[in-house]
Structure prediction request, 342 residues.
Amino acid sequence: MSTGSNNPFSLKVPSTAPAVPGGLLPCKYKTGRTLGAGAYSIVKEATNIETNEKFAAKVINKKMMEKREYMVKNEIMILKKVSNGHPNILRLYDYFETVHNLYLITELATGGELFDRICQKGSFYETDAAELVRTITSAVKYLHDNNIVHRDLKPENLLYRSKDEDSNLLIADFGLSKIFDVEQYSVLMTTCGTPEYMAPEVFRRSGYGKPVDIWAIGVITYFMLCGYTPFSRNSSVQVMNAILTNDFTFHEKYWDHVSETAKDFIRQCLNDDPSKRPTAEQALEHPFLKKAVTKPAVPAPETTPATPPKDLLPGVRENFNARKRLRKAINVVRAMNTFRDL
Prediction:
């Protein structure tokens, strides 16, 4: 860990820590297999040498982040503020730097991504989706209550803490998150995020705030109920145009057994006017999220409903697997480029 005063990251070092030649501290983590890769970083499994505990290490290349150091500082500040306050938010345990890299040590989420878990299930009903959306919305409410906008909510950033059946779902990756100064309030102007989950006001650069996370919740809910996103198109330009014109529909093949209540929730979240979208608190009061979340039981013959709940998993799995194959090919190219640069 560097202690140089000219270091743009300016991370403090405990004065009692043993020094080694070159003004650096010995690293107490050993990195292992790669878990993922981004534009400026890779995520590796890390083991604490002293305790043998497993963590995830986000390794950020300082040279590639030159003049963007504020993004790393911001992510650390966000995680320090919220990572221990809600059971569905990834925890930050440590952060330090070496000559070339900055390391963020977070809890190791071993349960896999949200949609991978869904596709591994034996069945998936609308009520299951409602419970998951409720969990995500609750965590977003906590962020918004702390004046934080995530800005990059998407299924890839929703991870399970463990493989246990009752494991918590976690919101991860706060690299694009932003704290609002409530005393010097100003709307955000930067265009950032993943296009298919970005709200129209982001593309318009008209200023935006917390409602962008509600929009993303609407996209995730839609995705969860059918396996594809509402604005899925062949190119980023077409995606942007579809979002700007609010061009989405509920295709009968995959939506004929989804309730009007669920569709109404999605429509409210995907309102083109951010001021008309519900807040996270209001979203939690919507009937879609308030209904009892129970697995559909097989009723007695005399009480069998005319339209029993439909298992949505076959359609979700079919659409998601096609999307996953494309994403895997893109990630391979991205990882190769990142490793080359690092």
User: Anything to note?
Assistant: Residues 29-108 form a domain with the Phosphorylase Kinase; domain 1 fold (CATH 3.30.200.20).
